[in-house]
Design brief:
Blueprint lengths: L2 H7 L3 E7 L4 H5 L25 E3 L5 E3 L1 E2 L19 H9 L15 H9 L19 E2 L6 H9 L1 E3 L2 E3 L5 H10 L18 H7 L4 E4 L12 H4 L6 E2 L1 H10 L5 E4 L16 H16 L7 E7 L39 E3 L26 E3 L3 E2 L1
Parallel strand pairs: 1-10, 1-11, 4-5, 8-9, 8-10
Antiparallel strand pairs: 2-3, 6-12, 6-14, 7-13, 11-12
Helix pairs in contact: 3-4
Amino acid sequence: MTAAANSLGSVEHIVVLVLENRSFDHMLGFLYADSANVSPLTKQPFEGLTGDEVNPDASGASIPVSALTPGTANVYFTPGANPGEGFVATNLQLFDEARPPARIPATNRGFVTDFAATLKGRDAHRPVIPGTTASDIMRVFTPELLPILSGLARGFAVCDHWFSSVPTETFPNRAFLCAATSQGHMDDSTSKYTSQSIFGLLSAHNLDWSIYGYNNPPLTRLNFPDTTNAPESHFGVFQDFRAAATAGSLGAYTFLEPSWGSSGNSQHPNYDVSLGEQLIHDVYYALRNGPGWNQTLLILTYDEHGGCYDHVPPPTGAVPPDNSAGEFGFDFTGLAFECPPSSSRLSSPPARYSARPEPSPSITLRSSRQSRPGGACRR
């Protein structure tokens, strides 16, 4: 038996934290920029940014990807507005067409022009920070600005080909994460589904689970019949999660939500990303300092790219989850953009990935794709 198999065999608790609307490049594209996109420790290649990536603006001028700095105005509110995140907006970002012909390859060259349209009013349902321009969508975070997320990615494992399941917004992707289907739905107008979820399946096999909101009851409870009708003992808020982690009483599966409002820690654009860093920090240490740490797998990911720039076209040829007819003519054979997943524990992620564990890092916070995975998990 391999060391990875031995480690996975010791997992008794899986904890999943899902944040909001950030792409892989936007958060982790420069993770290993200082070592030419190769892990210094394992020598594995990393699908990060080189700094040469560009997107054209409306005039055809090339807008290069660029690194944010601590001195950037409103740096943790980048990109300064909520980018387009629905099916049409994602098509524009991928193909530069709202309804592209079948089977044409994605180029990922429509981010700047789509963000320009957002700034003119389309889908701009959140305030725009003064001074925001279309080129801001090409500005990405560095490890120095995100020490918690980057520290976990370097210290444990990061999946650089993990794509969200649906090229659209939050609820369909969270439905896939919890139930492996959105039953054909392709936007946030539907939040209730009739399918069995992972939570009902766990109950059917006598495995305990919990869903925690942050400071309010979790919204996920309302999404599926088997969660809506589940006993109150399965639900709580973050302080309840922290108490269970401290007591070593977490069940087999724990699902964590952030706080959703504009002053919350979900990291949804254009909310304060540093508050999400604090949440990741607090989740990590609640688990690490608890008695169940050596039997716990923490998975951190984002539900969708949220219109934030990424240079890797998503793969095609996915297997549709069921016979549901997709809205907007979507057939569920294509995935969406990469989201930043990091797996934390003294183990690797599932065997299809090729990550090796390293000693658990001690992390200090600076003041200041559910996806069907394809590809590799890197250290």
